[in-house]
Amino acid sequence: MIARNLIIAALTLAAILLVADPAVATTIVPMSDRDLATSSRAIVEGTVVSTEVIASPDRGAVYTYVTVDVESVLKGDVPPGRIVLRQLGGSTAEQAFIVHAAPELETGARFLLFLNTDEDGSLRVAHMKLGAYRIVRDESTGLDIVDREMGDGYLNPVSPDTITWRGPYDRFRRDIGDYLAEQRLRSGDEHSPIQPPIRISPPEYSGLHRSSGAAPAFTFLGAGFRWFEPDAGQPVRIKVNNRDAFTPSRGIDEVKAAFHAWSTVSGSTLRVVFDGTTSAGGLNADGVSTIAYGDPKRQIDDLVNCQGVVALASVIGNPGTKRTIGGIAFSKLVESDLILNNGIDCLTSVNPMLLEEILTHEFGHDLGLGHSSERFDEPDPRLNDATMYFVAHNDGRGATLRRDDSDAIRFLYEGPNGRLLCNTTALPDAIPGEPYSRSIDITGGTSPYSVTLLNGGLPAGLTMSASGLISGTAVSETTASFTIRVTDSDLVEVDRALSIRVGVTPAPFVENVKFTGSKLQITGLFLGEGASVAINGRTTPKSPKYKPAKSKIVVSGSAQNLGLRLDGTDVVVVTIGGLGSNAFVF
Fold first, then answer.
1. Nearest residue to 312 (alpha-carbon basis) of 325, 322, 299
2. Residue-range definition of the domain harbouring residue 492
3. Which of 47, 167, 284, 463 has its CA 20 to 30 A from that of 323?
């Protein structure tokens, strides 16, 4: 599932549309309630009082400081009252550093929080989003429930124990208490690692510089971003910290395979190159884009019984530099970082190709993509099969893309001629016994194009050529619906559902609309006297005049009187004798 000197966005591809859902770039094995409770240093119930984003030059990152009014403590040396959490990621007026899968802690909301500490004892939510449960009232029962946010990338659970996403609060809290009681009984036989004392507020918090325009990290999830290098024919360069890699190639071949998958999509200008190894790594604004094995900066909790955060990514960009693609403004990406957790070979050793799939999925986020779908019951097989689907397939696919993934990357990094488009959205009626000829309008992509009938059929007497010319003489009255597929020479495909009505009285068909400042001029087919014109759903108050010599209808009036918005989204429909035209957008 960005922005300001920036970070994160979600391109959800059903019709290749960018949406403002939180896009996250992390892969998680859902953790059992027992392991979440026993691996956390503290568990508290409280209300978020405030969130504040502050840049920390010494740490090379931006942090969101979350003040929580603690009402009760289930575990840990945390007193009731106010504590301050330090969460990596956030956005100021100067820079955004938004970490995918950071918990969304809204001011005024109640939470049950599972907490761990950084190296200096400062508190943070344990295991990213897995450690934050919102407490809400169930209106149907009047009882409190716990509700944990989803939308991350998931692998199938490995623990047979209970995993709670949503459920009754009293029962969940009681179960957590039971797990902690069992832990206390076992503690005499176990040696806990030495950890720093818990701080109720980070040591630097009071002395940090407050920047203007600060906002919590999650506010900016969903803002568009992309790399600009491909527009100038330059590659995106990524270094790898493979010191703790565990594969025969020391992690390099797997990264290269992921880069190759995203760099070889037909009709896309994106090229990603391996830029050598580095000792840098971790989620920080150091000017170096990296993929690092082994969580070198200890920024995520270790796996517990092979459960927890497997991989985590972030992106940084410049909100002052934007480029519009497909009507959507994208900010310039300037850095991306991806970290793989310690011990993930417990997962990938069973299926080595899983590491390539994880890397390909996570790096897709760092290119600007979100999930194809975040529904466990996704009915569209194209979205469910995508490598950017939010559940890893673990089916041996490795570093490969599916159609939805390729469509997505083409949208962000279109070729020199632009995206392949089928501009024909409607076809005029045919008249029985009279010749018919209409071409499919295609632009962008790489010519030559081919047009095929994907399903359905044309009216009897009409045929379609490989170039998209529909011609012939219709035989009898009918309405035929069909879908065509346009394919360019790079094998990029675009589908379009169309229909042709055959009737002795054809409906008006609008081919062009022009507004001159005082007149709206409509040209097309089968226009005539007695027409009414609707603009943006409202019929114009003045009767239009028909000019048969030019097959034109003219409506006089100012933009305000005609109800025109003139922002590129005006819609005109002409009706004659009860038959309405196509909806023409201009």
1. 299
2. 421-502
3. 284
